[in-house]
Design a protein that fits this description.
With 381 residues, the protein is mostly helical. The chain is built from 16 helices and no strands. 80% of the residues lie in helices and 0% in strands. The longest helix is centred in the N-terminal third of the chain and has 33 residues. The protein is globular, with a radius of gyration of 19 Å.
């Protein structure tokens, strides 16, 4: 792809409709992450059990991503609107879950709505990248981080004010219903007749999928467990705990907006390798932090590093497949990559149950290193 200088605001203007979808997803997960300690306490389950309940999300996620190319063809220009409405309704179900069973069922539905939205919004951005011959993915993922940080901070304040999860989730769902008005966007190069043929390079899809998997596993680990780490390991208050995921969201937004410019100067693979080392250093600092302030710094450094890896992995696969197979290829990468959002919290729960959250976050640092050999392999494909 030819790389020419482009201001981040111009990139967001070119992709303004899918950018709204990224904000919606960020609002959802930012609010949820801030309320995780309260939700877990209300369910009265162990770390390992809570991790398994979060893993229920993967059931809906994988199923929706598998059928996403067909739904993209059927729903057409209304696809993002449909998925956003489903997202809002699933959030309401999550807020009113009162026990482990109802919470697990709600998480399956959340996963289905999240998976469909993720595939469609990334596919639309990839199409716009090819149309304008410019990298746009980092800027859009930056909008996810903005929405995530705003929701996490606001939800932390709401928790301090003793606002119940169901009330906060209702407010976010209402905002999603308003924002979905702006999501009418026809696909530009969908496969004729909704074709989902498998004749596309398999190796780039697998390798890019694994790179995105590593990135999103790390991101999900911090999103879901950082508040608990601060409140439990470092004896922080509710608002201090919410600042863990909020710090991640803020620095990821900064990293992704900066990555929009950096990706026009350096190759995607070089950026991924450098970002991996930064993320690893941040995870180590957060794990060993003696006080909440040091944990915030660690999560901030981690956010700067991990912010660009997932978007670049998705952008790379969009460049390596034919136009008419892009939605399907991105959905296959998403099946691998976005599964990390639900595998990681479950694994963190098991490790935390046995060794504690400090060791669990040290494991996150080790996981980051896996992105380097995968990126070197991608150079040869």
């Amino acid at each position: 792809m030819k790389k020419q200088p482009m201001h981040v605001f111009h990139a967001l203007y070119l992709s303004r409709r899918p950018a709204v979808a990224f904000v919606i997803v960020g609002l959802f997960w930012g609010c949820f992450a801030a309320y995780v300690p309260q939700i877990k306490a209300g369910l009265d389950v162990s770390d390992a059990t809570f991790g398994l309940l979060l893993l229920c999300n993967a059931l809906g996620l994988v199923s929706s991503m598998v059928v996403a190319p067909r739904l993209d063809s059927v729903l057409g220009a209304r696809g993002l609107q449909f998925s956003s409405v489903a997202f809002a309704l699933s959030f309401l179900m999550l807020g009113f879950a009162t026990d482990a069973v109802s919470f697990g069922v709600a998480m399956v539905i959340v996963g289905a709505a999240s998976g469909l939205t993720d595939v469609l919004m990334n596919a639309r951005v990839s199409e716009l990248e090819q149309q304008h011959r410019q990298p746009l993915m980092n800027a859009n993922h930056g909008m996810f981080s903005v929405g995530y940080a705003v929701a996490a901070i606001s939800s932390g304040v709401a928790r301090e004010a003793q606002i119940a999860p169901e009330s906060a989730f209702l407010a976010v769902a209402g905002l999603i219903f308003i924002l979905m008005i702006f999501l009418y966007m026809p696909p530009r190069d969908a496969a004729p007749g909704g074709a989902t043929g498998g004749r596309y390079p398999l190796k780039p899809i697998i390798v890019c999928g694994l790179i995105v998997l590593v990135a999103f596993m790390i991101e999900a680990s911090v999103e879901t467990w950082s508040a608990l780490h601060i409140e439990r390991s470092l004896q922080g208050r509710a608002a201090e705990g919410a600042m863990g995921p909020a710090m991640l969201g803020l620095t990821m937004a900064l990293g992704r907006f900066s990555g929009q410019a950096v990706s026009q100067i350096f190759s995607e693979t070089k950026v991924i390798i450098a970002a991996t080392l930064v993320a690893m250093a941040g995870a180590v600092l957060a794990a060993l932090a003696p006080a909440p302030l040091w944990a915030y710094i660690g999560f901030g450094i981690l956010g700067l590093g991990i912010s660009v890896i997932g978007p670049l992995g998705l952008a790379l696969v969009g460049q390596k497949v034919p136009d008419h197979l892009r939605t399907e290829a991105i959905s296959r990468v998403a099946v691998l990559g976005f599964a990390g959002f639900f595998l990681a919290p479950a694994l963190m729960g098991f490790v935390s149950e046995i060794y504690g959250l400090r060791i669990a976050f040290l494991g996150v640092a080790g996981l980051a290193l896996a992105a380097i050999p995968l990126t070197l392999l991608l150079r040869r494909i």
